[in-house]
UniProtKB/TrEMBL annotation:
Transmembrane segments: none annotated. Residues 16-287 form the Protein kinase domain. The chain holds residues 11 to 308 of 895 of the full protein. This is Protein kinase domain-containing protein. It comes from Durusdinium trenchii. It comes from the Eukaryota.
Length: 298
């Protein structure tokens, strides 16, 4: 059967009808869907197993999908997108998730050019909650970026918006501890790769949850200025990441507090050992919430 609006999936007694498309990733298409038995709305991430092999080793891709499902099942938290159910056919994977209606944080940033510090802080605090929770459960996300952060709701506050976000896309996540092998594979999205992720195969080393704090630093950077911290073609990009060469001067950073910049610096540190931890983030002056400057429009 085709996977498109109007199509149905699921077992005979628990069917869903596919609605409009919400987004897509490298191997997935995500649609709104409706559970027929009660009309409740969800989102479904569909993965075409025939196309999956184009992305590399089929067995590895499949085990990654299983891993995504297993991890999502274990993580029940307000700041993490909830997995409702899961269905598999010969050619398709269906991950039924809670429907997050506000779209990607990425689009919110693009639409507004950047977020104010007050807006960014609200998001950042929520991300700390979500990331703190998953790390306490031994899960590293490894792909934190504004495309994988979904806006659940938004309400006005002090001339800005409080965006409530949920962390999505555990497709590259990994469980550590408990005897499981440490994170050894290089995964993620180049612009957001931490230096130790970049070099992990070369060095044969391993990295842990500090990679998510690098990701948080990159997300914070993007929220504040509306630009990637690292950008360019493969070679140049890798070099920028390895040396944490990013720039916080120029018109986009004018008016942004020193506290915000110091938090970014503390997160985007090459050596994972030097990077701020969850506890340090929570104690950081910018997070603790002294008054923030109003947004200066570009
Ligand atoms: P991939 O692993 O292929 O990147 P994602 O899980 O990131 O797939 O989903 C791709 C896109 O689909 C997201 O960036 C987002 O736009 C949309 N999306 C994913 N999950 C949901 C959801 N639960 N509610 C609403 N939109 C979603
Ligand atoms: Mg994604």
């Amino acid at each position: 059967a085709e996977v498109a609006p109007g199509a149905r999936f699921g077992p005979e007694d628990d069917q869903y009808e596919i609605g409009k498309q919400l987004g897509h990733g490298a191997a997935s298409q995500v649609f709104a869907c409706r559970r027929l038995r009660d009309g409740e709305k969800f989102a479904v991430k569909t993965v075409d197993l025939r196309r999956l092999c184009l992305l590399g080793d089929m067995q590895e891709q499949l085990s990654r999908l299983d891993c995504e499902v297993r991890i999502l099942k274990e993580l029940r938290h307000e700041r993490i997108v909830n997995l409702e159910g899961f269905h598999k056919t010969d050619n398709w994977y269906f991950l039924v998730m809670e429907l997050v209606r506000g779209g990607e944080l990425f689009d919110v940033i693009v639409r507004n050019k950047s977020l104010s510090e007050m807006e960014a802080r609200h998001v950042f605090l929520q991300l700390l909650e979500g990331v703190g929770f998953m790390h306490s459960r031994g899960v590293i996300h490894r792909d934190l970026k504004p495309e994988n952060l979904l806006v659940a709701s938004s309400r006005p506050k002090d001339g800005g918006q409080l965006y409530d976000v949920k962390i999505a896309d555990f497709g590259l996540s990994k469980t550590i501890g408990g005897g499981a092998s440490l994170a050894r594979t290089r995964v993620g999205t180049p612009q957001y790769w931490a230096p130790e992720v970049l070099d992990v195969q070369k060095r044969g080393g391993s990295y842990d949850h500090a990679a998510d704090f690098w990701g948080l630093g990159a997300v914070l950077f993007v929220m504040l200025c509306g630009r990637y911290p690292f950008d360019g073609q493969k070679q140049a990009l890798d070099e920028q990441i390895r040396t944490a060469s990013y720039c916080m001067s120029g018109s986009r950073w004018r008016g942004i507090s020193e506290a915000a910049k110091s938090l970014v610096r503390g997160l985007l540190r090459v050596n994972p050992v030097d990077r701020l931890s969850l506890e340090e983030c929570l104690k950081h002056p910018w997070v603790l919430g002294q008054p923030l400057p109003p947004k200066t429009r570009l």
